[in-house]
Write a structure and sequence with these properties.
The protein has 927 residues and is mostly helical. 74% of the residues lie in helices and 0% in strands. It has a domain of 41 residues. The chain contains 33 helices and no strands.
């Protein structure tokens, strides 16, 4: 069967060769025809051709991309002549000669030109046989050895010797073919070179013979086997300089597999990672010479996987050899290959997309990921009291960050190192949950608390690692700030964010939450260093004067505020921290008089948000047990009031700021802070000095409604004086919120008729006055003030809410007059009470009619008509069936008299003498 397949394969190859020969013959005939045609053409005059040819030659030379010296050396080593240089020189020489005719010759394409797409014939005839042939040779050597074993022809030593000789013969054949092959063949079929295939087959044969001598026949020991396998692997990598990247990959694979093939009872981690480091250097040396990127990426992955296998596979791993090998990988990437090569020229793509995709992307991503994973693995595997793994993690994160700060293409190492640093310290903090310090501490001979002894390493690593990132950020900005604006922005974020995040995690998990001088002084020093850096950057910046934002400098200013905030939280607590944070933000606002940095006022916005967060975490600021019961004069007044006053002062200072964003933000935050302060003080006063989640009473909710409606009016007044979208929309939002409270709480949930709440002993100054009449008057005043200044639907909403509240006050007051302090629904209705409702509603309708005619307000007249209609319906449907005797008669008589009076009023006053209708609200100004 195998013979038949080989015969078919030979026939197919003969057919392909015959077809190729026919095509070459046809091509030769076409070339001869073109030459004959050129010879028949007249000669071109020298005067008209010399300058044109010279200009064309110069243009062709300028279009060609210069070939790097490394690539020229590689071509010469591979036996390829520098054709591009020769063709250019000959063209220039011909352009300056005195020949009358210029015969066109073959034009050499530039080195970077796109090659034509290969045909199926090229793959089947030139590539596939080479690939399969190389594999076949390797298997042939293996099968030959196997056959000799099965047949018992030779002894083990002879078999291994013949296998080694066969491998050396293949290596020699590969070199001979390479020296005698055509240069065009090696360039066109670089991925399927016959010399490379022969060399790869020979290397596999030698590796197999060496391993068999060790593992099967035990002719050599593990040390000798390791050295021989390493020698063959390194030789394969060296030969890849002549035979291509594929052979380098084979040598890399052999090197990475060698430690796994040669096993000993006492594995030496130092020797293992020393060998891996040397392998990485050898692969990257070849890659630098030939400018490969795939093999270095695989080398990074291989070293990282070996590190992970060692960390998780060893019972008691040593962090030092792993760390040193990974540092060699990171340092070699930064200074050896690719080094500074990709930072010399900017890539074609610019902006953020160009930065994130900057070459060599696969190398930077692989070295970053394969460094971070072993570093995090060491954090997970480290045990209590072993600080070496933690320090190794910090060293790897710092060195990877240094790579990101030293090379303009290393944006991913910078960001991955920062993320890994924060993640590693977080995992360290979480791992301590498995062995928390017991509540009853044992006695210490030196008197030092056990927490301090246990957490020293974690605090040192976290704080030092954060400081390293700050220094790396300054180093990057000094070198690349003007040339790399996007990358500078990244470092301006990382250099304050990483130390603040690490110090915060360290403080919350390992520090003293009462007062921690270590973390406090660290935050203070960080803030001062970043402020000094901002001063240095702004002094050297010319972008602010040109109207553009210098993002790195402004981000560093924001980072200094974060550092000082960390210091305040470490050195103080409770209400003191809340007040000092707002004072710190206001100090940044006052600093605008000294330095016009755009980021300064944003510190106050951040401070106000931090205050809001602290209030949400603990509304009492000092604890519910320490909060006094005195209304208003308690800790809530300074705790809420001072940040609110500072926010209002900041909004006033920024009222004319050219940056409308911070102006609007501070106006919104100041308004919200003021409303929240008033509400909290009211809540405390109305609940006996207790802040909890109990449902408010109608009186408390009425105060909230009055405050919200009044707040809407104040914002509207401020907007009329200094127009602002925040004040305009804020006033309407406050009005809508107050109206929702009225419709949901005043009408139903907290209504004394449904809740049964006592209204108080006084006839007029009672709960109904606070819950309905005062909010109704407030709504009426705001609606009157909003006429012509706000959209008409909003004004109508306010007017209707006020009318509903007034109607409820009158109705519930009638019920209180007849039922007493408790007006709950279970009491039913009295006949006098029912009749009084009709009288009161009609009187209110008449009053609204008179007021509407005096103010020329159609809305009031329509409200009057609606209320009279309700009274009419009530009289006919309720009074007729429920009232008896004189009350029923008086109800209908009163209704008839009022209706006739209303008709007479309209006929004699509201209708003009000429019969034209009176003026309506349509003459009022619209919003």
């Amino acid at each position: 069967m195998i013979e038949i397949l080989l015969l078919v394969l030979v026939v197919v190859m003969i057919g392909i060769n015959r077809k190729t020969a026919n095509r070459l013959t046809a091509l030769e005939k076409e070339v001869e025809a073109v030459k004959a045609d050129l010879l028949r053409r007249p000669a071109i005059p020298l005067a008209a051709s010399t300058e044109a040819v010279r200009a064309e030659a110069l243009a062709e030379t300028s279009r060609e991309e210069p070939v790097p010296p490394v690539e020229l050396a590689a071509r010469e080593a591979a036996g390829e002549p520098a054709l591009a240089k020769t063709e250019t020189a000959e063209a220039m020489k011909d352009a300056g000669t005195g020949h009358e005719t210029v015969a066109p010759g073959p034009v050499l394409q530039p080195a970077a030109a796109e090659r034509p797409r290969e045909s199926l014939e090229s793959y089947l005839g030139a590539r596939w046989p080479v690939w399969v042939g190389g594999v076949a040779l390797a298997f042939g050597g293996i099968f030959l050895v196997r056959y000799s074993i099965e047949a018992g022809l030779l002894g083990p030593a002879a078999r291994l010797t013949l296998a080694a000789l066969f491998g050396l013969i293949l290596l020699t054949a590969g070199e001979l073919v390479r020296r005698r092959a055509m240069p065009q063949m090696s360039e066109r079929f670089s991925n399927a070179m016959i010399p490379g295939a022969l060399t790869a087959a020979g290397a596999v044969t030698l590796l197999g013979a060496t391993y068999a001598a060790y593992a099967i026949y035990e002719f050599i020991g593990p040390t000798t086997a390791f050295l021989l396998l390493a020698l063959v692997s390194f030789a394969t990598i060296a030969l890849s300089l002549l035979h291509g990247q594929a052979l380098a990959g084979l040598g890399l694979l052999a090197s990475l597999v060698t430690p796994a093939l040669v096993a000993t009872e006492e594995p030496n981690a130092n020797a293992l990672f020393l060998f891996l480091g040397l392998t990485w250097l050898a692969v990257n040396a070849a890659s630098r010479f030939r400018q490969w990127t795939i093999v270095p990426t695989l080398a990074n992955v291989g070293v990282g996987l070996w590190a992970l296998a060692y960390i998780f596979g060893s019972d008691d791993f040593s962090a030092m050899p792993v760390t040193l090998a990974l540092i060699v990988m990171i340092g070699g990437t930064g200074f050896f290959w690719p080094g500074a090569r990709h930072g010399a020229e900017r890539p074609a793509a610019s902006g953020w997309s160009g930065l994130l995709g900057r070459p060599p992307l696969q190398i930077t991503l692989s070295v970053s990921i394969m460094t971070l994973l072993p570093a995090l693995a060491m954090v997970l595997r480290h045990t209590e009291g072993s600080g070496m793994a933690l320090f190794a993690f910090g060293a790897l994160a710092a060195v990877l960050g240094a790579l990101g700060a030293s090379r303009a293409y290393a944006v991913w190492p910078a960001m991955i190192a920062a993320a890994g640093a924060v993640l590693g310290i977080t995992l360290t903090a979480l791992s301590w949950l498995d062995y928390v310090v017991p509540s009853v501490l044992p006695e210490q001979t030196d008197g030092q608390p056990i927490q301090t002894l246990a957490f020293t390493n974690e605090i040192i690593v976290a704080l030092l690692l954060g400081a390293v990132f700050t220094l790396l950020g300054f180093a990057f900005l000094k070198r690349f700030r003007r040339a790399e604006p996007e990358f500078s922005t990244v470092w301006a974020v990382l250099m304050p964010a990483v130390p603040v995040a690490l110090a915060t995690i360290s403080f919350l998990n390992f520090g003293n939450l009462g007062r921690d001088w270590t973390h406090g002084l660290y935050g203070l020093g960080l803030g001062l260093a970043l402020l000094a850096g901002a001063e240095w950057l702004f002094r050297r910046s010319d972008e602010t004067a040109q109207g553009r934002i210098d993002w790195p400098a402004n981000l560093i200013v924001a980072g200094s505020f974060a550092g000082f905030t960390l210091a305040l939280h470490a050195l103080s607590n409770g209400i003191v921290t809340t007040i000092l944070v707002s004072v710190l933000g206001f100090a940044y606002v006052l600093a605008m008089r000294v330095r016009p940095w755009p980021a300064l006022p944003w510190a106050m916005a951040a401070a106000t948000l931090i205050v809001f967060g602290r209030i949400a975490w603990e509304p009492t600021l000092i604890g519910p047990n320490s909060l006094g019961t005195t209304p208003f004069l308690n800790a809530l007044l300074p705790g809420y009031g001072i940040p609110t006053l500072l926010a209002i002062a900041t909004a006033w200072i920024l009222r004319n700021s050219p940056d409308f964003r911070i102006r609007n933000v501070m106006q919104a935050l100041a308004s919200l802070a003021a409303l929240m302060t008033i509400a909290v003080l009211i809540r405390h006063a109305m609940n006996g000095g207790v802040l909890d989640s109990r449902v408010p009473t109608l009186g408390e909710q009425s105060i909230y409604t009055l405050v919200t409606v009044g707040f809407s009016g104040v914002l509207m007044t401020l907007d009329l004086r200094s127009p602002s979208p925040v004040l305009r929309f804020g006033s309407m939002i406050a009005g809508v919120i107050a109206t929702i409270n009225v419709l949901s709480l005043h009408l139903f949930a907290l209504n004394p008729y449904f809740s049964g709440e006592n209204t108080g002993p006084w006839p007029f100054f009672n709960l109904l006055l606070l819950g309905y009449l005062l909010p109704a008057l407030a709504y009426g005043l705001v609606a009157f003030h909003a006429r012509g200044r706000r959209p008409m639907p909003y004004v109508v909403m306010l007017a209707l809410a006020g009318a509903v509240l007034g109607f409820l006050w009158a109705t519930l007051s009638v019920r209180r007059f007849w039922q007493g302090e408790n007006i709950a629904d279970w009491k039913g209705f009295l006949q006098g009470e029912t009749y009084t409702y009709s009288v009161v509603w009609l009187l209110i309708g008449v009053a609204l009619l008179v007021l509407g005619s005096r103010l020329d307000a159609r809305s009031l007249r329509l409200a009057s008509a609606g209320l009279v209609l309700i009274a009419v319906v009530k009289v006919f449907l309720i009074d007729m069936s429920n009232l008896e005797g004189i009350l029923r008669a008086l109800s209908f008589i009163g209704l008839g008299a009022v209706l006739i009076g209303i008709g007479l009023f309209y006929q004699r006053i509201l209708v003009k003498k000429n019969g034209a209708p009176a003026t309506t609200d349509s003459e009022e100004p619209a919003s």
